[in-house]
Amino acid sequence: MGGAPYLHTLISEVPSVASAGYYADIVAGHARRRDVSELGLRLTQLADSGTDTADLLATSRALLDDTGTGAEWAPPIPLGTGRHLPAFPAHVLPGWVADMVRAVAEFTQTPVDLAGSIALAALSTAAGGRAEVEVRGSWREPTNLFTVVVLPPGSRKSAVFAAITGPLLAAESALVERTKPAIVEAELAARVAGKAADKAAHAAANADASARDTLLAEASAAAMQAEAVTVPSLPQLVADDVTSEAAAQLLADQGGRLAVLSPEGGIFATIAGRYSGTPNLEVFLKGHAGDMMRVGRLSRESQHVAKPALTLGLAVQPDVLRDIASMPGFRGLGLLARILFALPENTVGFRRIGADPVPADVAEAYRDNLGALVLTLAGWTDPAVLPLTEDANARVLDIERAVEPRLAPGGAWGHVVDWGSKYTGAVVRMAGLIHLAEHLRDGWGKPVEAETIDRAAQLGDYYAAHALAAFDDMGADQATRNARHVLAWIERTGSTTFTKRDLYRATKSATIRAVADLEPALAVLDAHGYLRQIDPPARPRTGGRPPSPTFLVNPDVHRPAATVHPIRDARRTA
Questions:
Q1: CA–CA separation, 18 and 384 (whole Å)
Q2: In degrees rounded to 5, what are phi and psi of residue 87?
Q3: What is 18-79+477-573's CATH topology?
Q4: InterPro entries per the record (predicted)?
Q5: What are residue 130's phi and psi, to 5 degrees?
Q6: Beta bridge partners of 131
Q7: pLDDT computed for residue 180 by the predictor
Q8: How far is CA 449 from CA 135, 396, 443, 558, in A?
Q9: Of the ranges 81-90, 225-234, 277-286, 319-328, which one carries the lowest mean pLDDT score?
Q10: Which of 181, 222, 315, 323 is most buried, most CB within 10 Å of its CB?
Q11: 90-170+238-475 belongs to which CATH class?
């Protein structure tokens, strides 16, 4: 081999400046064949979609015409910020919690974000008001959280709540049984003291002048003794849709601790004044911060709750998220700033049928450990103080330094300064919960390690990304919300071509009641480069209704780096 024939072969088969045009024609030919191949796939998909025959024929002609134009696609512009949302980092939770979270998510075929966020609320219910994390010796954070998960109807929220919060109700029943003897004893003591006070008052009222002063003093002492007898309330850890006034009274009765846990969002309408007509946010604002709260009572003098610890764990529908943005005071007074939002992807339509149930040993460990945490901390009247190690304090300082520039005007969190200002505190609170759940028997006697802060910071990163998306959704207009709804349908179905008529049939809802309602949403998606309309075909001469407008989808929509609400490949093939 070699010589002139070999040299000739190299010259003829290796691209050069002289042969550039030849090879460019080859590449262009391959591109045209690829376009034709993609056109065939689009037409096949359209035919399989059940679209009208007239629309199918008209669209086919329009697609053929469009293929010859060579129009290129630019990368789509994201609809708002924070849409590439991370998955819930269940691995940072203590093992017995993480195992339960994953198992419940698998069995119910729900996002792990739902079980994970409610599990944090469950830990908050157990430890809230009974422990504080001490940062650098002078800053103390309570360990109660507000978590809100946003999912559409039919997402099995109630099933997840039942599995995750069930052990709390069992622990509550155990506390009731433990407290009943003390209640009976106190009630008897109150009756005896009351009768003694009545008897002393009667004696003083009927005494002659010489003995009246002495008997009045005895009657006063007896009355004060009767008043001093306190009958404990039956323990209650969890409430559902309670008014602000009822929540305040429960906090007073329960030693400053209460959790509002619900797979619905009705509590927000109640707070906003559904029954009273006047918003009352004080108990939720002070209950999160641990600020002293005065509770008025009709039959007795007002009570003071020195350090209220209110937990909130909810799962709401997207409409509720948009509603609360307009409720008076929710943003301005700081309620929304206290919430850890989670906006997981919707798994409905991609759930695996016959998923494995929660293993018995996983459920048993979760029930026993969560119950033990509740019962162990229930008797604490003053909260345990959990100091940080030196390295852990340094980690918190690092977080504060990273957060501060984001809060500046024009910074990444400049538009959510209210939420971002509470970020570091939320990380510290979650670190306290992880610490107590990791050290069930002696966590209150150990400092919080730097590694625990690092794990909580991963949760913080997750909730920060989701908070940006939540505030973006709350501020979005209807056209943008409908555009996201349409885009989610495109991603779920893998559509590359569709008609407006077919889109309406698939996406009609409370906000898309007519085909005309799609116009603003399609305009938004067109402006952001997610799709474009094909030149409309000529109206048929034979009469009948005109063909429905046809749209092409930017191929980048179906590539993970460009999706807005990605549906994972595992969900597509499950």
A1: 82
A2: -80, 155
A3: Arc Repressor Mutant, subunit A (1.10.10)
A4: DNA_helicase_N/primase_C, DUF3987
A5: -115, 0
A6: 384
A7: 74
A8: 12, 11, 11, 43
A9: 225-234
A10: 315
A11: alpha beta
